[in-house]
Amino acid sequence: MTTMTFIIMILILGMYFQDSTGQVTVIQTPTEKHVQNGQTVTLTCKISSAIGRQSD
Length: 56
Description:
The protein is an alpha+beta fold. It has one helix and two strands; from the N terminus they run αββ. It has a domain at 24-56.
């Protein structure tokens, strides 16, 4: 196998597995909240995609 063929195979494998990196985006609302010391704060977080059975 030539070096060029090997490099092309590695690049193809990299593109094939690119979507399976496990990256998830977490979105928090509100993005910031100003409160006084001692106040209760509630933040809501949502994820960009399902994570196993823990998506909700």
